[in-house]
Design goal:
- Helix content is 61%, strand content 8%.
- By secondary structure, it is of the alpha+beta class.
- Strands 1, 2, 3, 4, 5 and 6 form a six-stranded mixed β-sheet that branches.
- Strand 2 and strand 3 form a beta hairpin.
- Helix 2 crosses helix 4 and helix 11 crosses helix 14.
- The protein is elongated, with a radius of gyration of 32 Å.
- The chain starts with 12 loop residues before the first helix and ends in an 8-residue tail after the last helix.
Length: 351
């Protein structure tokens, strides 16, 4: 059923049409301004532009001047009226979109930085499809460029999510150049799909997913977990395009006592600094060796070395540190020290 358009949006239209047809004049500045104002009012009232244009054309047929004036002038008047009306309508819509974006941006900032009363925050959250009575999880996507909400990449990802899941109380936004997806914690398939779409849309960007957490503070916690996962991935040069904070919990545990980890790195790996070329080449050798499951052939391939050259390096590490990477009793200590070195950016930084 077509929604009936109130007569107020056509006020004075028949008079303008008749006068223009009789005199051949163009619309005055005040008449154009009045049509724009009516277009803005119609947009704010929620009427559809297509129906409004149709109503103008129907009214033109009904009020078509019966005088001997120029039909061309009358048609030009119809065109001017509809053009001015549509301009006002679109201007009101753009303003509404900007206001909505500003409100959402303010809500996201207050949510992630805890700058609002929790009760008020929960009320505002429902406007954007979030119900804090449920746990939520946050996925963060980082690409080669910084993204704003109006950019093609966020719009592409949002369209894909809507097409797949419809309205599932999911909030997609941007923060500090990254894409954010906030979804109910039990809807892991939404965050997984977001990760796939964001990875593809950002040209191979990396996505991290925080753990589901309850309440407004839970959203912040999950968001921070996702950010920490991205930081860990960069420090450790992890290859996985999608990282889950739940799978990386061992790393915060290892670095919780930073001084203890620094002591382990210096004591276990410090002797490598006396090698020709410094510690970094031998540290890279240990990293590749452990990352390849202690398979010498695979580690050599990753380092573009011969197996013999890799074996020489491992022997050199054993001689300098007194710990044998191939010995199970030494391996855990060395591997933990290597992880600590990567997390603490050693040897580039002094510990």
């Amino acid at each position: 059923m077509v929604r009936e358009i109130p007569e107020q949006y056509l006020e004075g239209y028949d008079r303008i049409l008749a006068d223009v047809a009789a005199t051949g004049r163009r619309l005055t500045r005040d008449e154009i301004a009045s049509r724009r104002a009516l277009g803005e009012q119609a947009a704010e009232a929620g009427h559809g532009l297509r129906t409004l244009v149709s109503a103008h054309l129907t009214a033109a047929r009904t009020a078509w001047p019966s005088t001997s004036g120029s039909a061309d002038s009358a048609l030009a008047a119809v065109q001017q009226v509809i053009d001015a009306f549509a301009e006002g309508y679109e201007r009101a819509q753009r303003l509404a979109v900007r206001q909505e974006e500003a409100a959402r941006r303010e809500f996201i900032d207050d949510l992630l930085y805890g700058r609002s009363d929790l009760g008020r925050l929960a009320e505002r959250a429902e406007r954007f499809g979030l119900r804090f009575s449920h746990a939520h999880a946050v996925a963060v996507a980082q690409g080669p460029a910084a993204y704003d909400e109006g950019d093609p990449v966020p719009r592409q990802v949002e369209r894909a999510l809507i097409a797949r899941f419809g309205d599932r109380n999911v909030l997609l936004t941007t923060k500090n150049g990254r894409l954010l997806c906030i979804a109910p914690g039990h809807q892991d398939e939404v965050l997984t799909y977001f990760a796939q779409q964001a990875h593809a849309a950002t040209g191979g960007g990396r996505v991290a997913v925080g753990r589901p957490q309850p309440g407004p503070g839970g959203v912040v916690h999950s968001y921070e977990e996702a950010l920490n996962a991205l930081e860990l991935a960069e420090r450790l040069d992890l290859d996985d395009p999608v990282l889950r904070a739940a799978d990386l919990l061992v790393y915060p545990v290892l670095t919780r006592d930073r001084q203890a980890m620094a002591d382990l790195v210096v004591n276990a790996l410090g002797p490598l600094t006396t090698a020709r070329g410094g510690a970094q080449p031998l540290l890279d050798t240990l990293t590749a060796y452990f990352d390849s499951g202690c398979v010498a052939a695979e580690a050599a391939r990753r380092l573009t070395l011969s197996v013999r050259a890799l074996t020489y390096r491992l022997e050199r590490i054993h001689k300098l540190t007194g710990a044998n990477p191939a010995d199970a009793t030494h391996r855990y200590m060395l591997q933990t020290a290597v992880i600590g070195a990567r997390l603490l950016d050693w040897p580039a930084k002094d510990l």
